[in-house]
Write a structure and sequence with these properties.
Strands 3, 4, 5, 14 and 15 form a 5-stranded mixed β-sheet that branches. The chain is an alpha/beta fold. The chain folds into 2 domains: 3-19 and 229-423, UDP-n-acetylglucosamine1-carboxyvinyl-transferase, Chain, CATH 3.65.10; 21-227, Alpha-beta prism (UDP-n-acetylglucosamine1-carboxyvinyl-transferase, Chain), CATH 3.65.10.10. The protein is built from 13 helices and 26 strands. It binds shikimate-3-phosphate. Shikimate-3-phosphate is lined by residues 22, 94, 165-167, 170, 191-192, 311-312.
Length: 425
Amino acid sequence: MDKKLKKKAKILGEVIVPGDKSLSHRALIFGAISHGESRISQILRGADVMSTKSCLESMGASIIDNGEEMIVRGQGIKGLKRAPSKLDCGNSGTTMRLLMGLLSGLPFDSTLIGDVSLSKRPMKRVSDPLSQMGAHFELTNEKFPPVFIHGTQLKATHYELPLASAQVKSAMLIAGLLAKGKTKLTGKIQSRDHTERLLPHFGVKLHLSENEISIEGGQQLKGNDVLIPGDISSAAFFMVAALLCPGSEVHFKNLSLNPSRMGIVNLLKRIGADISIKITQEVPEPIGELVIKYSKLKSFHIQESEVASLIDEIPVLAVLATVCEGVSRVSGAEDLRAKESDRIEAVAQNLRAMGVKVDTYEDGFSIEGGQELHGAEIETFHDHRIAMAFSVASLIAEGETVIKKSEIVDISFPDFYKTLERIAE
Ligand code: S3P
């Protein structure tokens, strides 16, 4: 469905962002492999999380959605059974990669499939380290989904993460639960830490230090209730919207303020954004309120060390770069090419269509601020974050912007357009 959008003067009001996507996947998976009941409230009901839910249900998990909460009744890891058909992960890389960790250590065979976008995403980053634990995989062309998994008894390993990827780290920790012995992770372990925070909430002991995470196999999970805070990656679209339009002010409540996800807030403050924060809960995840007001901004340079803390926000930050003073640059972010789309090319193609000059590199791009945008036809490439980033760009573009296949926003933010229409004046 095409969405036609027009330039707006400002953004004013409160935004309720949907539940955090990363936490929603993990709460469902950990609930399903626990003993006992877990009640998950404010879970994201976006298509990606529904893919995780339906895969778990195909393996016999009991998950009841009463509209308010999802109630998961687990019978332990061994309670999951071979699915009667292929497990469809839809558009969701998190579903596929976390389930690869789980299914490689369960005593049955499984096949994971995905949509056209997921079918082009690299899976060796997960299958290689899991194979080191004795897992058996068959990937398509040795790289891609469909992924066939021959479940087996895993053995613990020491793996040095070459990529700062929370999906790889989480797949290894889940496999570590099923392995004999102690699995140790070192290397690039500094990525979002929801798995490390949530596993102890389900009774698992982890050893965490700045350079190492280790987990003893054979631990039982115990069901627990989880309240999912709002997703800062979804809030990011409205933070940037407020910074594009003079006179804007946006309030968020019940937002995840997990330090490993605060890259966007740290960057915006660094370049001059007026942001105030109040933390209202610390454990298991910091949650709070955030207010952002329109501000004049300097340019930014995102370097490799910062990328993992704001990886999903880079498309909308590219839109922000067009109003910053000076040249903004992203480097050390080649993994953007392996997301739901090649986000370096998707951002460049769409910004160019709106009249902006962009230089691209293998690992990022640069954009000079102060360029005028005009409306254009936007290709979304099966990528929810490209659709939302360019819907935000339409707020400052002369004329009409048409977002092709805009329904892809349902992946992470089903009410995105309703919210935008409500607060844009
Ligand atoms: C996610 C981790 C990130 C992120 C994705 C969700 C997660 O991916 O881009 O949207 O829930 O673990 P990588 O681990 O591949 O960087």
